[in-house]
Every structure is written in C-alpha cells, then in structure tokens.
Amino acid sequence: MRRRQINTDNDKLSGLPHSTTGSLSSIITTSIASSEPDPGAGGGGGGGNGGPGSLGHDGQSSVDEKMALNRPGIKQEKWTTILIQVSIPFFLAGIGTIGAGIILGRVEKWRVFKSVSELFILVPALLGLKGNLDMCLASRLSTQVNLGNMTSRKEIIRMIVGNIALVQVQATVASFLVAMFAIAVGAAMDGNFQFEHVMLLIASGMFTATSSCFVLDFVLVAVILLSQKYKLNPDNLATPLAASIGDVVSISLLSFIASLLFDHIKTHLWITFVVIACYLILLPMWVTVVLKNKYTRPVLKSGWVPVLSALCISGLGGLVLDAAVDVFNGFVVFQPIINGIGGNLVSVQASKISTMLHQSSIIGIIPPHTKVFEWPWKALFKGVPYAKTARLLIMMSIPGNIVFIFAADYIHMSQSTVTVYFALSYVVASLIQVMLLMYIAHIIVHAMWKWKIDPDNSSIPYLTALGDLLGSSLLALAFLFLLSINKEYGAGYDVLNASN
C-alpha cells in the first residue's frame, strides 16, 4: 500500500520542473524523515543518554554531517576542491578590494568629496549593489547550472538577457533612492541643501550603478558559462570573481563622474538633467524586456523588498563611513577590504546553501538534516552539511585579511606601517564579522526557504548589506580601541595622498 502511494506521488510530481521539486527521491526521503526524531537529539538508535551507543557532541555532529551529505540529491564536493575553487577568486577579489581602498584613500581629498560629503554615504550603498543585484544574478544562474537546467542555447540566452535587463531596472531605481537617502541625511545633519549637489548626487549614483552592474553582469555570465563548460561549481567562483573588479569599477566610476560634473556644475548643470533623463527613458524598455521573460518576471514583482531593505542597511554603513573618515586616519583604505571580504565569503556560503536546498528538498520544507535555528557550533564548524564550507571560509579569512592589510598599507603609505596591535585588532574585527555573517546566512536562507521565498533572489542582498554595516562598525570600534591605547594606525608617519 505504501509503495502504491509513493508511486502515485511520483506520477503527480513528475510533471513539475526540476528546479521546483529538487530530487524526487530526496523529497520522499525528506517527507518520511521529517516525521522521525532528529538524529542529533540523542533519542534514537538505542544510544540513550550515556548508554553504550551514544556519541559525544563532536562525534554525533560528525555522524550527522556525513549522513546529511549522503542524502539523495545532494552533490558532494571534497574540501580540497572547495578550497582550490574558492581561494583563487577570493584572493583576486582581495586585490580588487585593496584597489578600491587605495582609490578611495586617494580621492577622499578631492574637492568634490570635500564639498559634497554625502558622496561618502553613497559609497557603501553603491558597492553594496554588487551584492544586492549582481551576486543575486550569479546565485540564480549558478543554481540553474547545478540543477542541469542550462543546456539549451536558446534558454541560456533568454536567461541571460532577462537577468541583465532585470539588474538594470533594479540598479536604476535603487541608485535613485539611495541618492535621495544620502541627500536627506546630509540635509538633516548639516542643515544645508543645495540643488546643484542634489542633481550631482542623483546623476553620479545612477551612472555608477547602471554602468558597473552592466560590466559585472557580462563578467558573471562568462564565468558561469566557463564553469559549466569545464565542470566547475559556479557557486564557488562566480560571486568572488565579480567582486574582484566590482569595487574598483564602482569607486572609479563614482569618483570620475562626480568630479567631472562638479568641475562644470556652475556652467553646465544641464548635463546632470540629460544623464538622469537618459536613464529614465531607458527604464520602460528594460521593464518591458523583463516582463516578457518567464525567468525574471516573478523576480521583478517580488524582489524589491530585499533590495530596498538592503540599501537602507548599507546606508547606515555609509553613515559610519561619513562619521569616521575625518576622525580615523586610513579608515577609508581598510573599510572596502573588510566589507568586501565579508560580503564575498558570505555570498559563497549563501549560494551553496541555496543550491543544496534546491537539490535536496522542495521549497517550504526544511530538510531533516538541519533546522532554521541551529547551534552556532553546528552551523559554522561541524554538524550540518554546509558547515564544511563555513569553516573553510572562516579559516581562509584570517590569512587573507593579514595579507590584504599589509599590501594595502604598503601601497597607501609607500612603506610598511602595520603594527602588531593594528593587525590583531583588525583580524579580530574581521573574524567576528565573518562568523556573525555565516551564522546569520544559515538562519536567513533557511527561514526564507521555509516561508517559500527563493533565497537565490532575496538572501544575498541582506547578507552583503549586513556585511557592510558590521564591517564598518567593527572596524570603527577597532580604530577606537587603538586610539584609546595610543596605538592608532599611521601615528608618526606622513600619509601620502594624491593632490586634486
């Protein structure tokens, strides 16, 4: 009778797309196992509490993790494969964040940044768009590759065109809103409102967001298609590689266009009107393309809450940057590094969790190998199948951060000025940030899955925005601690800044 029921369920589910149902055998496993006691609760298998069959905490976590990884539908990866595939783009992304920090350290003395301080509020939000929009695109396409749905050339083209158009729509609207946020906050803090600065901020923000996203989208698509061709996991490669150039491109474009508009703002204010008008004219065209595409139509209707919420969170990070830039020497050099590394690593983790959920369950049902709220030890180190990736990423962040801060310091100062106190303070701040983000990622992705929200579309914006806020705040605390013990960064050295 039970076999007949399972066969009936097979017939009902066979017509559903693979991306919705996951592996059929794993769905049946999930539905049966979810009614059984949690193997980690110590109640099954004759183990008992303290009985001969019971395992210690670490032993039980190890068994749980291995059992979860062996479930049908889950593709297994060796830890060496994950390490190699993630480490290369991770260090490339680190070079990008170093470049972004160096550029920001140079342009902070430009006249436009001195006169229009609201640009500092724009910086984290515009860099966060990389996480809000481009990394969501990477996560969506990576999941489709891992589910085996990107085989037809026609369908691949439709996916790519629809997703690029979707990102342009989101970038145009989001950049306009974040510019208005910066204007409102600047007016409230300074009590000063200048129409020319308003137009400059809106035009600069829209130009930077749409242009950088357009460039990054093509890089992401190329990486994902090459990953598929050479049998690599795009979850490990796409988001860090996009980030490797994203920060540099965004800050360079913002500095260039803002400075150019500022130099001619008294005589050629009309240029800002033309820039804004061009993007507003293009917006309906992009919307039409998205609405006619079956892959992106649902995201356009439901994807605004996470993007706009994340922009507000990133805006708070911008307030921290705006407040710290005049107080702490060198803060702008290291702020893109800590934010970028945290965002890159948690994006990889969120993308891999989302892919594994798609492979092993159906949306709305939490697999039996995990829970929404796990103990931090199980979520980050040993106990759930994603803990293997989490502990690798946490371990990678320590040497990575040390290398990056020494490199950024030497480039910025033309000599090595990093002290033991600064290195330890920075590493502690970054480690706290990464571990918090990894644990929050576990909760957010599984909560969205339970509430039938696709985490590929919604989780990464929250996580990268929280990465910006946590990174900026913890870095400010580290600088404050160094100041309190008279070991502040760059003390006694002449900082070499580019003249405007």
What does this protein structure show overall?
The relative contact order is 0.14. The protein has helices spanning 2-13, 18-21, 24-33, 57-69, 79-107, 111-115, 119-146, 153-190, 195-229, 234-263, 270-291, 297-302, 304-324, 331-360, 376-380, 387-413, 420-450, 455-484. It is 75% helix and 0% strand. Helix 7 crosses helix 18, helix 8 packs antiparallel against helix 9 (195-229) and helix 8 packs across helix 13 (304-324). The chain is mainly alpha-helical and 500 residues long. It contains 18 helices and no strands. The protein is globular, with a radius of gyration of 24 Å. The longest helix is centred in the middle third of the chain and has 38 residues, at 153-190.
Which terms summarize this structure?
disordered N terminus; 75% helix; disordered C terminus; 0% strand; globular; mainly alpha; 500 residues
Question: Could you give a short description of this structure?
Answer:
The protein has helices at about 1-15, 20, 25-35, 55-70, 80-105, 110-115, 120-145, 155-190, 195-230, 235-265, 270-290, 295-300, 305-325, 330-360, 375-380, 385-415, 420-450, 455-485. With about 500 residues, it is mainly alpha-helical. α7 (about 120-145) packs parallel to α9 (about 195-230) and α10 packs antiparallel against α14 (about 330-360).
Which helices and strands, and how do they pair?
Blueprint: H1 2-13, H2 18-21, H3 24-33, H4 57-69, H5 79-107, H6 111-115, H7 119-146, H8 153-190, H9 195-229, H10 234-263, H11 270-291, H12 297-302, H13 304-324, H14 331-360, H15 376-380, H16 387-413, H17 420-450, H18 455-484
Helix pairs in contact: 5-10, 5-14, 5-16, 7-8, 7-9, 7-10, 7-13, 7-14, 7-18, 8-9, 8-11, 8-13, 9-10, 9-11, 10-14, 13-18, 14-16, 14-17, 14-18, 16-17, 17-18
